[in-house]
Amino acid sequence: MANENKEIDIQEWSVEARHDTVPHSTSVLSLAIFHLRTLWLFTISEHQTIVYPWTAFGIFGALSGWALTTNQSPDFWAIIARLPSALLWMWWHILVFTVANQRLPNSVLEDTVNKAWRPLPSGRITGVQARRLLLGIVPATFLLTYVLGAGDFSLMSLLLTWLYNDLEGADENYVIRNLINSLGLVCWSAGTTMVACGKDQHQLNAMGYYWLKIEAAIVFTTLQVQDLRDQKGDQARGRRTAPIALGDVVTRWTIAIPVLFWSLFCPFLWGLGIYGFIVPAVLGGSLSLRVLRWRSVEADQLTWNLWGLWIGSLFILPLCRNPSVLNQLIWRSRSAM
């Protein structure tokens, strides 16, 4: 009964707060800007660490040609021209996930502690409006994938979003939380790669699917870094994340050690020379040092951002293994001079 009252209070507070945040102007342009900003605020926390790195995964994967896909001779400019499409595909799925997540009463409670500027705790939108928004953008996802492709990975992403949020798969056990996250991110990696390759033009090859398994393992063993900054909010909602279940110190070691391992294993997997180890090793070493040494909420936010940069450095390794598309681009540029 106490939890029910808490949820009702949150919803009532959100409705009341909204009266001060809706623009007083009724012009179409003002309302359009207001609502577009609301959508942006749903996803902005995930741009540096999810949207950009996972879009990069797709672009780098498509450019790597035979290293990950069935495309033996990728066209650099054709793939780069699909960057907006891959970015839109990725951002749209993050939008679906974040609206589904942030609309829940417990999420509003958590965000009032950790991220009070988000649309629901700040009063820009109510829980009912967020639910109606979700009713619109989920069906629109099928239209998006019909145009851009990767519908099978999109469908799996929607299923995992439901398991994570509505069935509270992320709340009770940090292992299940990381498992769902890793599977969801793999769906997004595969989806952005297929969009970057061109709808129905090429597929992932055997190594491509193996690389997705490696990616899933990387995410599964390190993604608890995102929970270090949110411990107060997670405690408020009763979520059993790794820092709460294992303790802050132990969790930091469970991040630092796998980060160092993957920073060395992945360049080795791709058979790269010593230069291929430099960037992942430097970023991985810096990430491991930060997570152990600096422990404030602000520091943990920067560490989380660094995690996104570090994992992005791993995503470019297949292109380092097969840089033929870049070599051809350089050769053509020199020939034109």
Task: Quickly list its features.
337 residues; mainly alpha; 17 helices; 0% strand; globular; disordered N terminus
Overview of this protein structure:
The protein contains 17 helices and no strands. It has helices at residues 2-18, 28-43, 47-63, 76-81, 83-102, 105-114, 127-148, 151-164, 174-197, 206-222, 231-237, 242-246, 248-269, 275-293, 297-315, 317-321, 324-336. Mean pLDDT is 89; it is low at 1-20. It is 75% helix and 0% strand. By secondary structure, it is mainly alpha-helical. The radius of gyration is 21 Å and the shape is globular. The relative contact order is 0.12.
Topology:
Elements: H1 2-18, H2 28-43, H3 47-63, H4 76-81, H5 83-102, H6 105-114, H7 127-148, H8 151-164, H9 174-197, H10 206-222, H11 231-237, H12 242-246, H13 248-269, H14 275-293, H15 297-315, H16 317-321, H17 324-336
Helix pairs in contact: 1-6, 2-5, 3-5, 3-9, 3-15, 5-7, 5-8, 5-9, 6-11, 7-8, 8-9, 9-10, 13-14, 14-15
